[in-house]
# Entry
Amino acid sequence: MILLVLFFCIQFTSCNKSQEKTDSVDVYTLKGPSAISMVQMIDETHTLKGKEVHFKIKNEPLQIRSLIFQKKADFAIVPTNLAAIIHNKKPGYQLAAVPVWGTLYLFGSHSEISNWEDLKNKRIHLMAKGMTPDVMFRYLLKEHGLKPGTDIQLDYSFPTHIELANAVASEKAKMGVISEPLVSMVMHKNSNVKSIMSLNSEWKKVTDLEIPQTALLVNKNFAIQNPEIVSLFLSKYQQSCQWINENHEKGAQLITKYKILNNKGIAKNSIPRCNIRFEYAEDIKPLINEYLNTFYQMNPNIVGGKLPDEKFIYKK
Amino acid sequence: MKNLFTKNKTYTFISVVFLIILWKAGSLMVSSEFILPSPEKTFFSLIQLTTEPEFFNTIGSTILRGLLGFFISFILALSLGIFAGIQEKFRAFLQPLLVTIRSTPVISLILLALIWFNVNQVPVFIALLTMFPFICTNIIDGIRNVDHDLIHMAQVYRIRNKNIIRHIYIPAIMPYIFSGTSSAMGFGWRAIIIGEVLSQPTYGIGTLMQNAQTYLLTDRLIAWTVLAIIISYFFDLLIRFIEKQSITWKQT
Amino acid sequence: MSIQIVNLYKNYNDQQIFRDFSITLQENQISCILGPSGCGKTTLLNILSGLTNTNSGIINGLSGKIISYIFQDPRLLPWKTVRENIRFVLPEQDKKESDEKILLYLKMVGLSDFINHYPNQLSGGMKQRVSIARAFIYPSDIILMDEPLQTIDPKLKLSLMKTFLKIWKNDNRTVLFVTHDVDEALILGKDIFIFSHPPVSIKNILKNPLTPEEKSIDNKHFFELKKKILSYLD
# Structure
């Protein structure tokens, strides 16, 4: 009986180590600005150097995280701080590029808010405690002298994007922090809801830097074995990001075609708010480190206990 | 008799030690601190947890929610259950409600509760819905299993209904109440913690579990789990103790 | 005042148990109904104790009367001590008063040492003795007994019957008991009614002539009467 149990343990662990990977290029992106940034590539790039490319759009970062642990992803989009946590706990993926910058907005039906002082004694809804929007917002609160709990109430009762968006649309939540494209979607549903602040701009005001919010990760082993594919992918992605910023009309069409959003009007309005701009991670290393360091100072756990080392950034 | 008792306890002890060894072996094989941390690291985290400033608030909040959910469930189940056990028609009326609540997946209840209630109430509501049908059904069964010969005797001796309930029905269903309660509490604690994970109240074990998960602090996650198990076990022992004190007549 | 049942009609599950049945039970006397199983003896007790309705008929002498019952099985509450079990049927009385009474009766049935024991610590015979004490302590006018010695070890039956008679002697309450055991009828009963199968009629009434000394199985007079009764029962 004891041997049986041990046997299963061994099977389980060895199974994890030798995952059979299909001979295709698997790309996982998040529904939202990152998928929007990739949409031209999704439409046109079907093979790279003879290998089939599969794009999969996931709803939650946690889903992509688990695919990363299973080493199923060749390329993956995750929030940048999650990329750091992954690198610190289970290295194997490197940060190749930042395609999407700050997309978080404070929005809601409280129209009288015009500055941080006005937020005193208000209730702000955030998604999950510890995730990027929460951390970012609390950093900005701290910088403006507002203490959560005493000066301002933070409410986490709507744990996913969709629930929080619906709550703001129905005005059950008067104010929330959420990412594009949900901001545009909710504003379309309820004209009372306005965008109150762009966290990206507020961050810039305080730190003089923008928010490298979303990271493109590449599987290290995959990159070592297929450096040309990686380089090709990155340049095509760069093109895709440029294209969508210059082609709102056609972009909106593709966005609805691939079911990222279901309304062309919303899609079109959303594109500029998505803050899409492709930068190679290698080129903006100091900026990324600054960003992670800000979080590290607040709570080291947010970036995985320590600042990621040199190996975190992918070198072209 | 005493020898047999010691023997059983020894086996329990061996089993626990064996599980810990298995755990250690597993963590060595996996050799990744965040997928399966070693027992020592987890134990160390556990100790660390207890020294953190919010520890008592966290444990206290979770326990309070659990107890609140339990007491409401219990009182509701006792009153409705006794009535349903005695009155056949009311039992038929109550039955669909009990079956529905029992069969609904806990997660559906949680997601609905998130829409209806505030973050601190959600776990209590979930615990309530998890425990109530269980205790109620047990009490109904208990009442229906009451020896009708005893009821007949009381009726012939013209005992008042309230005394029949107090001196016959309630003592007769005590074993059912205790077994129902002890099982229900087991579910209840689990439901509270799931509720807390999803509703994220300011203080709660579930909240901190979710945090640990977000930051991939697996040792903390397991440490909180161990604490949750300890709490559940403690209350189970408490119920057994109270049972022993009340049902003295059975031991003689 | 004696109990009179006149022109009783009673159906039970399509079977007519009593059809124009009448019987008179003398007060302050132990009456016995002797008959085969299923002949409506229990039904009659249920009617007298108010558990079952009649289809028609008149019952005199019961109005305002309180009834004690001794069942085939002791029917003690397992979670109460002997003392508490008896006190259970006396809810209105003053605790001290009832405690004294309980001790007295338990002495009479020889169980005063077990006053704080639980039923599961007592034998079947002891439990039935408690049931007897309970029936007597209860302030009733009439005691009904339904085959009370059915579950008792044959060796104990005689001592239990003697105990019953001992208590009853000071009390003289009207007692009606049903049995199918002729020995019991002859030892306990004064008026012995022999029932037929349903629809029930009284086959014979026997006024028990035996003296207390003659009430023994090996007594000649006892044996003859028993033979006679057995012939009536066939």
Summary: The two ends of chain B are 16 Å apart (CA to CA).
